[in-house]
């Protein structure tokens, strides 16, 4: 399917169901962009602070047969850390900063 044909199909879907399409697509992109703008540096610092030691221990101490299990457990812990950071209240100082 050519790009032109794909754009025509998307355009026709948008014209037939504008409320559904716009609320799903534009709402998703807006909230994602806003979240990334507010927390990118904090999340990237936390990510490096977590995954670098985890992978260092993984390749230094963990036998190859247990590495997948170790990284899976570490990934589960990382997802919980992300959930915790996502639900932290924003301080007044961070609210005043405009990017």
TrEMBL record:
It comes from the Eukaryota. Its main location: membrane. Keywords: Membrane, Transmembrane, Transmembrane helix. The lineage of its organism: Eukaryota, Metazoa, Ecdysozoa, Arthropoda, Hexapoda. InterPro entries: Mpv17_PMP22. One of its GO terms (cellular component) is membrane. This is Mpv17-like protein. The keyword Membrane applies. It comes from Acromyrmex echinatior.
């Amino acid at each position: 399917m050519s790009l032109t044909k794909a754009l025509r199909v998307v355009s026709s879907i948008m014209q037939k169901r504008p409320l559904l399409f716009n609320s799903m697509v534009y709402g998703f992109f807006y909230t994602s962009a806003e979240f990334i703008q507010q927390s990118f540096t904090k999340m990237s610092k936390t990510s490096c602070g977590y995954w670098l030691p985890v992978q260092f221990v993984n390749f230094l101490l963990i036998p190859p047969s247990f590495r997948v299990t170790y990284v899976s457990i570490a990934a589960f812990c990382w997802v919980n850390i992300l959930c915790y950071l996502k639900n932290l209240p924003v301080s007044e100082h961070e609210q005043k900063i405009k990017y």
